[in-house]
Amino acid sequence: MLEGRTENWNLYLDGTAYCLNCHKSRLHGMMPFVVVFARLPNELKDYSQVKAVLPDQEIDVKTLKKKIKRIDKILVPAIREQIVKTKEADNAYFRKRHKILEKPFPIGSSVMIKNVDKNKKTDPNYEGPFSVYGYTKNGSYILQDKSNAFLSRDIPTSHIKLISEDGIPTEEKQNVYVVQSILNHSGEAPNHKYLVRWEGYDSSWDSWEPPSMFDGTEAIATYWARRNAVQPSSEGKKQKLPKIVNKRKVESSRQEKSVRRKARIAAITSK
Asked: Which residues form the Chromo domain (predicted)?
């Protein structure tokens, strides 16, 4: 409306107030003007040629007070009742379509999260496991992986499935490493082994690992997508191009970011 001329806001104040006061509220279905003044607002038209007609008698104060009492006893309770009904209907609609927990997942519990990047039927529905580290003020969850590094995003309740309130076993958190990429494979399906380059380590640390050693299938799927990038599919169609595996050089490592985030959370909880 202002089209960048914010200094002209006062020119639109009257018109904006009129529109807001004459707009029917979804909560109770009435105009704010009608609720306050118990009458319909005047229409937007030229009244300069309309001759004012004064009442023949003075305002009856007693009658006016009776009208106000009637409004308080009938109109206001009816509006309040309608607001309650609308809110109850909204709440029922929301609960029907969202996962509502009366109690949050316990701190330290083991959970799986919804695979939001799923694009094929064969992709897993959930990823993990992760452990619950804390909550945000909006009700989402701060999660950690097996290496105690934070996830890059907070997870809503609707995307979480509880595995165990006991958390991830300690032995599963030991000797956990991050896959940078898979370089090669050996053996025949379904007994493949994969040559893995580990994040933060040079080629002397490359090792052959079976699929059971991976927490998820993303790294394996990316490898096969790269391996089959130039081969046609069984239906003669070109294979979907794989995701890029180049790692952008960042200022801080994942572990350093995790440490800084822990410090921020500790500072907030200590206040």
From this structure: 177-235
pTM above 0.85, yes or no: no
Structure confidence by residue, pLDDT tens digits, 211-227: 888 877 778 888 888 88
| H or E segment to which residue 152 belongs | none
- What's the CA gap between 142 and 136, in Å, rounded? 7
**Residue 56: CB partners within 8 Å, gap ≥ 6?**
none
CB atoms within 10 A of CB 151: 16
Q: Is 9 helix (H, G, I), strand (E, B) or coil?
A: helix
**Structural domains present in the chain:** 15-41+61-97 (no CATH), 100-175 (2.30.30.140), 177-271 (2.40.50.40)
Residue pLDDT, tens place only, 178-219 = 888 899 999 888 889 999 998 888 889 999 999 888 877 778
Beta bridge partners of 112: 161
3-class SS at 179?
Answer: strand
Which two three-digit tokens encode residue 142?
Answer: 């701060």
Backbone angles phi, psi at 34, to 5 degrees: -65, -40
Q: How many CB atoms lie within 10 A of CB 168?
A: 22
Distance CA 160, CA 218 (A): 19
**Three-class SS state of 8:** helix
Helices (H), the chain: 13-22, 32-37, 61-70, 76-97, 170-173, 218-227, 254-269
Amino acid (one-letter) located at 119: N
Residue 236 is encoded by which pair of tokens?
Answer: 């003669």
92 phi and psi angles, rounded to 5 deg: -65, -40
CA distance 208 to 213: 10
Please give the backbone phi and psi of residue 181, each rounded to the nearest 5 degrees, phi first.
-170, 160
